[in-house]
From TrEMBL:
<keyword id="KW-0274">FAD</keyword>
<dbReference type="Pfam" id="PF01494">
    <property type="entry name" value="FAD_binding_3"/>
</dbReference>
<protein>
    <submittedName>
        <fullName>FAD-dependent monooxygenase</fullName>
    </submittedName>
</protein>
<keyword id="KW-0560">Oxidoreductase</keyword>
<dbReference type="InterPro" id="IPR036188">
    <property type="entry name" value="FAD/NAD-bd_sf"/>
</dbReference>
<keyword id="KW-0503">Monooxygenase</keyword>
<dbReference type="InterPro" id="IPR050493">
    <property type="entry name" value="FAD-dep_Monooxygenase_BioMet"/>
</dbReference>
<dbReference type="InterPro" id="IPR002938">
    <property type="entry name" value="FAD-bd"/>
</dbReference>
<dbReference type="GO" id="GO:0004497">
    <property type="term" value="F:monooxygenase activity"/>
</dbReference>
<feature type="domain" description="FAD-binding">
    <location>
        <begin position="8"/>
        <end position="349"/>
    </location>
</feature>
<keyword id="KW-0285">Flavoprotein</keyword>
Length: 396
């Protein structure tokens, strides 16, 4: 076996969650290595909504100004009827919202956020970024954790953080559960805004909802690009097949929608589809000196746009506990887990429930839902206070 590299903190996975954690730990003055399996750091996918709970962390990390240079700050979150075309509900993201939560609601291209985090990590003397490091094994030793990579390299750290996403290898140390397929699939991508101006609202995040489907639209990158996500439940889903949620189904489903949706859906890229998974919440995601973070710990359906936001919160919370507990790493990991498991489980469950509400096929439920939504006023923040309001301790 190769001689182990002795390091302080290890983050396994260099996605948005892993990089935020590395940066947060570095800000506490600790050194941290990031092991990423890919040959290069990067993000695929399209837009990302960043609610005030995530913006609070990013702002404390000193990234507010660089984010402002490329993000878009929408005026409203709007729910529309995807079949009939009317507005069902909206949330005002203006002055009252910002004052209440102390932060704006931002939308970005996810590769822009990832690049900002990466550059901040590169600028930090405390962060070492390593690529082509696919972690294959994690083993707890006395007072440290040993991590082995596919290339034979070995690292021994005071603590390791598994931030390796939905299909996490590190989670296997805690659980033999598997991602749960929702039978929904997403197509997503961005297009130059001028190509879709006719169907693009540039001031709002718009979510069109209908039976077994939804369609999300918002601008990103200084409004130069327009992001669209088309999501539907496939009637061809089979557990042992990949031939479901096809582009032909996408066309058939969205052709039946209100013309503004049907026409905008024609702009979707079709070369890649994202089947939608989550998992049941875990009570425990820490074993010895390994803990989890982000989608590795609590993958969720994206319906309330919180997966990355929660991963970002995780990183801040972990760093705070590390700085609070000093040399007592076990106490830090225990405090981190105690603080995060309850909240993230609630977010996972709420995302599922919101999916059931927006996708309902039942006519009576739809009528009641719409009546309830239309009664809400745009400055009624009751439903999102628990999610967006300050309360998650963040490293100062
Ligand atoms: C359609 C869609 C829309 C979404 N919209 C939003 C939104 O608007 N707002 C929001 O907050 N969230 C959103 N999400 C959720 C969000 O994308 C994820 O929750 C978030 O990206 C998770 O980040 P992560 O760093 O935990 O995991 P990942 O982004 O999956 O990163 C994991 C990293 O670990 C690496 N890795 C994996 N295995 C290994 C290994 N064995 N060794 C080393 N490295 C490894 C991977 O290469 C990757 O770089 C959306 C998701 C989808 C599918």
């Amino acid at each position: 076996m190769d001689v182990a590299n002795q390091v302080s903190f290890l983050v396994i996975g260099g996605g948005i969650g892993g990089l935020t954690a590395a940066l947060s730990i570095a800000k506490c003055g600790k050194s941290v290595h990031v092991l990423e399996q890919a040959p290069q750091f990067g993000e695929i996918g399209a837009g990302l909504q960043l609610a005030p709970n995530a913006m609070r962390v990013l702002s404390k990390l000193g990234l507010e100004d660089v984010i402002r240079e490329c993000a878009v700050f929408p005026k409203r979150l709007v729910l529309m009827d995807a079949m009939r075309g009317g507005e069902l509900s909206s949330l005002d993201l203006g002055e009252k919202f910002r004052t209440r939560y102390g932060q704006p609601y931002a939308v970005m291209h996810r590769s822009d956020l990832h690049a900002i985090l990466l550059e901040a990590c590169r600028d930090s003397e405390q962060v070492t970024l390593l690529t082509d490091k696919r972690v294959t094994d994690v083993e707890n030793l006395e007072d440290c954790v040993r991590v082995t990579c596919a290339d034979g390299s070995v690292y021994e750290a005071m603590a390791a953080v598994g931030a390796d996403g939905l299909w996490s290898t590190t989670r296997q140390l805690f659980s033999d559960d598997q991602p749960i397929c929702s039978q929904y699939v997403a197509y997503r991508g961005t297009i130059p805004t001028e190509e879709i101006l006719q169907y693009a609202r540039l001031d709002d995040v718009v979510m069109w909802i209908g039976p077994n489907l939804h369609f999300v639209q918002y601008p990103v990158r200084r409004k130069e690009l327009f992001n669209q996500v088309a999501v539907f439940k496939s009637t061809r889903y089979r557990v042992d097949s990949d031939d479901w949620g096809t582009p032909e189904e996408l066309d058939a489903v969205f052709d039946q929608c209100f013309p503004a949706v049907a026409n905008a859906a024609k702009y979707m890229q079709r070369h890649r589809r994202w089947p939608m998974y989550d998992r049941e919440p875990l009570d425990n995601w820490t074993s010895g000196r390994l803990t989890l973070l982000g989608d590795a710990a609590h993958p969720m359906l994206q319906y309330i746009a919180q997966g990355a936001c929660q991963a970002i919160e995780d990183g801040a919370c972990l760093a705070l506990q590390i700085s609070r507990c000093g040399e007592d790493i076990d106490a830090a990991l225990a405090a981190y887990q105690a603080e995060r498991t309850v909240r993230t489980a609630r977010v996972q469950r709420t995302a599922r429930l919101f999916g059931d509400i927006i996708h309902t096929e039942d006519e009576a439920t739809r009528i009641l839902r719409n009546a309830f939504m239309q009664k809400r006023t745009a400055d009624d923040f009751g439903a999102v206070d628990w999610l967006y309001a300050p309360g998650v301790p963040v490293h100062q």
